[in-house]
Design brief:
This protein is an alpha+beta fold. The protein has seven helices and 19 strands.
């Protein structure tokens, strides 16, 4: 079993967990690939018993690894999406952060999770991506997102005027700090903090959620993910930005954005003892009596 390890940083008290993971993978006899910047962070803190191959991009692991392990939080896992792309490599999220909707495996569950993967006792959750179809080239070849596309301003001096269309039919003009177009996966991220609804990963929908709307009667709306969403932004000379997950780029006012469902999906590994509703209950503390 060949595994790629991806991360950005690691706390000192998490080093023993990573060491146990590396030791277990080495004992299995497979090849371990480590993201080059992460390897630079680990090289003086982790002992790699065998030969470790560095990688920097999708071309280094496509067809060479069976799984990619993301070590960090949900933001770290989002950074693996351009690396995996349409290769179909399943991603396991190991949570070294706080909340961890996507990185659902705790530190203590790392080795049991590896054993389940070896025994094929897992599920593959196919997660929908959205694609920024137009304008082309803003994010190079990585014009897709697992969580959301966000249009926002970076100054409190003025609000944005955001004209939004669904399949060329006018939906609404939002006067707001910004607008989020979220996938089902992203419905538990930024959209949720802006009062957007939680939708299940297999719902085949997108959520359009305004950020701090000036009109208090405006609420998030759920649309089929086969919809083509068009957004035109106006902003009285203020800077306007667009985000795809954790990547951001400044755009011109009155630029027309076209968003649609991506042609491929991302495979997230889910252990046999976990499901979406359990994750929601645990992470959001549903059902707990907090009246004490």
């Amino acid at each position: 079993m060949n595994v790629a390890l991806f991360g950005k940083s690691i706390a000192n008290n998490d080093i023993p967990y990573v060491q146990r993971l590396v030791d277990r993978l080495e004992a299995m006899g497979g090849q371990v690939f480590v993201y080059q910047p992460f390897l630079n962070v680990l090289k003086d803190r982790i002992h790699f018993p065998g030969k470790t191959l560095p990688f920097n991009g999708q071309e280094d692991i496509r067809g060479h690894v069976d799984y990619l392990f993301s070590i960090g939080g949900d933001g770290t896992l989002l950074d693996t999406i351009p690396l995996v792309g349409n290769s179909g490599i399943p991603i396991l999220g190991i949570n070294m952060g706080r909340l961890g909707f996507l990185s659902s495996i705790s530190k203590e569950e790392i080795i049991p999770a590896v054993e389940e993967i070896v025994e094929k006792k897992y599920f593959l959750d196919q997660r929908t991506l959205l694609r920024l179809e137009s304008p082309e080239g803003i994010f190079g070849p990585f014009n897709y997102a697992l969580n959301d596309l966000t249009v926002y301003r970076d100054t409190p001096l003025s609000i944005l005027t955001i004209h939004t269309y669904i399949n060329n039919e006018f939906l609404n003009t939002y006067w707001a700090d910004g607008l989020i177009v979220a996938t089902p996966t992203g419905s538990t991220a930024y959209s949720l903090s802006c009062t957007g609804p939680i939708i299940t990963p297999d719902s085949e929908n997108f959520v359009i959620t305004p950020i701090a709307s000036h009109n208090l009667t405006v609420r998030p709306i759920v649309v089929p993910d086969k919809s083509i969403i068009k957004i035109i932004v106006e902003g009285r000379g203020i800077d306007c930005y667009i985000g795809l997950d954790s990547r951001h780029h400044k755009i011109e006012n009155s630029l027309e954005l076209i968003i649609r469902k991506e042609d491929f999906t991302i495979n997230l590994l889910r252990m046999s003892n976990k499901n979406f509703f359990q994750t929601i209950r645990e992470k959001l503390k549903w059902g707990l009596d907090i009246r004490n």
